[in-house]
Amino acid sequence: MIQVNQYYSYVLAVLSSFVFSLFLTKTAIFAAGRFNIKHVPTKEKNQDRKISDIGGIPVLLALLVGMIIAYLIYPEGFIDYKKPLIGIGLGTLIIMIMGFWDDRKELHPGIKFAIQIVASLIVVAFGVKISLISNPFNSTFELGILAIPVTVLWVVSVTNAINLVDGMDGLAPGVLGIAGISLFTICAVKGFPLLGIISLAMAGATFGFLRFNYPPASIILGNVGAYSLGFIIATASIIQPVKASTIVVLFVPMLALGFPVLEISITVVRRLMKRKRIYQGDTEHLHHLLLNLGLPPNIVDWVFYTISILFGTIAVGFSLGDRGYMIAFLIVLMLAFLVLALKLEATKQKRGRI
Predict the structure, then answer these.
(1) Which of 131, 135, 156, 155 is nearest to 145 (CA)?
(2) What CA–CA distance (Å, rounded) separates 104 from 126?
(3) Whole-angstrom distance between the N-terminal and C-terminal Cα of the chain?
(4) Tens digit of each residue's pLDDT (9 = 90 or more) over 224-241
(5) Is the Cβ–Cβ distance between 244 and 251 less than 8 Å?
(6) What confidence score (pLDDT) does residue 230 get?
């Protein structure tokens, strides 16, 4: 049963992060205009004009404010996790610096991967790691010495997945907000207050930012925001020890982040099949293909919001309901997603031959 102060921590975490995100983002837009902090347009990010790319900073600050307020109201939810939170904070700071520098100088992909691995190892050193993996049928596998590489792979993959979906106005903040609400719903019922607070603060901060990032955007997350938010949700999703009998370790967070995880999986396979470097940027992501078909950006956003909501619903249903139905629903959704990807790719190739 949720305690009164725990309930208030949830409410104020999402409300304060939302309000501060609105205020701080507006301030960032003014500051970017005042000091001419603009990002050069790129095809990969589907930008056709110079725009401020420091939006990740106010979002991260708003998220932090939401967590601090929640801590002041409900410190019991944080008491056993001070060391892991310090690790996540240090790792996030490293990712923020990397992302900010990447926005200014375009770091080599190899350097970015190395920095992400270092940040992930710092988090592991502070006790945040995946010690076991359980499948949808409740059997578990102790990772042992594999815990470190599996954790690093998870964190780096999700970090880059969020950056990949940040390819057009409004997409990444909306997807992150939906994932945050999904994770919170699971945590509230299963009794994981810290992850619930982080998830709500993430949702409030990203939805507040979406007010200014929805097409046509007046500010974007930038790599400083996309990489950092991906890192936070990747590490936060594994911060609390979870019993396989109550919730499936890693599998449920993966479902809640279903769209970004599938997007990066398809991207890696596609680039390998075309003998491209997996870190080589391109304009062949699903949102690019839909835009090339002539769909307006806001409609493309809602296509992927809907997909994210469906994945989030499956994650919640899988944790709280009949897993048989949820597995069947998941298979159908993944098949539909795959058919959409193949159809869009075929349409692109057909148009290229005309």
Answers:
(1) 131
(2) 30
(3) 62
(4) 999 999 999 999 988 865
(5) no
(6) 94
Specify the pLDDT at position 136.
58
Amino acid at 67: M
pTM over 0.85: yes
Q: What is the pLDDT of residue 190?
A: 81
Reading the block at residue 149, the tokens are 């590489």
Compute φ and ψ for 216, nearest 5 degrees.
-80, 130
The ranges assigned to domains in the chain are 4-353
Both tokens assigned to 20: 């501060």
Phi, psi of 225, deg, nearest 5? -85, -45
The encoded tokens of residue 138 equal: 């409740």
Q: Please list the ranges in the chain whose pLDDT falls under 70.
A: 1, 39-49, 134-140, 240-251, 274, 278-285, 288, 321-323, 341, 344-354
